[in-house]
């Protein structure tokens, strides 16, 4: 971590080239059409998925457990043959073009998988040797750089079975970063990491994205998605519910007006009078759907009515609110 | 590697060489022989000739010849005259079970073990390529066949040289050949024994593509070996027996005839090639179309 170009990932993210309006397959890194997977048991895991991941985006892939995220990722990586439909990664059909596409893709799928009897370094050497486009002469340099990047250089000689969950996760990430990649597919990358590790991974993702790498990130941590992603898609029960820029998704649900006051009952009455709906009182907190007018007037009305206001503001809808509104459920396992 | 360098060296700029693809084979062999399990198997195989050698030495310590004529594996009665015969005895003793069992463990675990630990998905997205990975695995199992056989042979030769006299030897046909000639035949026999295991290796690899549990694949492969060995003893199955992969295994003794009797030897090698082709193709058909869900 701490590479020279880690200085302005934020501005890069805000001014991203906005290719999301055009759904053309040419500037999308992942593009699926009616992608469907029915397992042999007859269970429909993914149902007619039309997913478009714009180049250069940090794409959050959301959904409750069992919603088909992992099956989708496995189809994109050529591990599972789709029942019907088509998937293109980096502009080429998968799984047919695996050999051309996958060297440019780094992946962390359903957690790391390591050889416990090999050291961290030997694990990476093995995965690097599996890539036929990797030059064996520079293998040790690549492996050392990848270990360094995830902060594992000091533990590289230890057997992987002695690693903690967080260290295994870092080693898995290192294997995804062995080569310069055009696309990174990261399934729950911060799983098992401590808060410091999560921060490091997030800054690593931003840094990679600022280099132009498209990052496809699946996570159940919504605030994580909100912090790093430019785009997101939500899946539930094998279907895509929505996709688009994160800002648009969150904007779909309106923010709530929140007033903090010791005179909660009185405040609620005034707010209703002023046209606010769905007023909820919780101790000294009154929240409501704001009416369509300048909220400064509402504040003035409260003060005029003698309500002592401690706090007044609109709580922006979080992605979590949007998510629950869309899927109509929390993170329960889909039946 | 610095950031700037990483950007400059785009994936497209890499020009892969054909030789790079063998890096996986090298790594696979290294990885296999780094496992404690592999070393333990080789240890057991190395111990068999030592036990046989010591047993024969103790038995014949009083000057009598080994066994009351006929008992025990082939060539055992000749060991006291010439330590080189311990090589043939040890191979004859390990070929029916110990050697194929070791192959069954390595071959059965080859794909299924990786699937069970999840490392298979990372090898495939690296991308190892399914056909390339399968070929690499098969080549590695065959390498193990050769190494395992050589471990038995070298261990037997060392023990034989240590405990018994060496020198010119008598073939089964009764002719005398020089020690150097005998050594050459011992090496040839070791190679034939290793080749006898090719069919078993292909069978194990095929079983390995059917399951995601390394243990299940190993147990099935070794179970098949035992079943076939038993069926090969039942006279009523006479018509089927020439198609059992183990049927001609002990034909390697024919290399000790003068002149060499090639009939069963070629049948054995032909049968192994047939097994390799059939189960190799089945493993390929299965593995290249399999959904990797672990």
Question: Can you walk through the features of this model?
Answer:
The complex is a heterodimer of chains A (335) and B (294). By secondary structure, chain A is of the alpha/beta class. Chain A has 12 helices and 15 strands. Chain A has helices at residues 9-14, 69-76, 98-101, 120-130, 139-149, 165-176, 195-210, 222-228, 246-251, 264-273, 295-304, 319-327, and strands spanning 28-38, 44-49, 52-54, 58-62, 84-89, 92-94, 105-108, 183-187, 214-218, 231-236, 239-245, 256-260, 277-282, 285-289, 311-315. In chain A, the strands form 3 sheets. In chain A, strands 7-8-9-4-10-11 form a 6-stranded mixed β-sheet, with helices on both faces. In chain A, α4 crosses α5. The model of chain A is unreliable at 1-25 and 331-335 (pLDDT under 50). Chain B is mainly alpha-helical and 294 residues long. Helices cover 64% and strands 1% of the residues of chain B. Chain B has a two-stranded antiparallel ribbon. In chain B, α7 packs across α9. The longest helix of chain B has 34 residues, at 130-163. Chain B is globular. In chain B, 44% of the residues are buried. Classes of the chains: A alpha/beta (335), B mainly alpha (294). Chain A binds chain B through residues 3-5, 74, 77-81, 98-99, 102-105, 107, 109-111, 113-115, 117-118, 122, 125-136, 139, 141-142, 145, 172, 175, 179-182, 211, and chain B through 1-4, 6-7, 9-11, 14, 16-17, 20-21, 23-24, 26-27, 31, 34-36, 117-119, 121-129, 132-133, 289, 291-293.
Element-by-element helix/strand order of chain A: HEEEEHEEHEHHHEHEHEEHEHEEHEH
> What is the strand tally of chain A?
15
As an assembly, this protein is heterodimer
Strand-residue proportion of chain B: under 5%
Largest interface: A-B, 48 and 40 residues
Report the portion of residues of chain A in β strands. Answer: 15-25%
- Using the alpha-carbon principal axes, give the shape of chain A: elongated
* Distance, first to last CA of chain B: 32 Å
Q: Which class of secondary structure composition applies to the elements of chain B?
A: mainly alpha
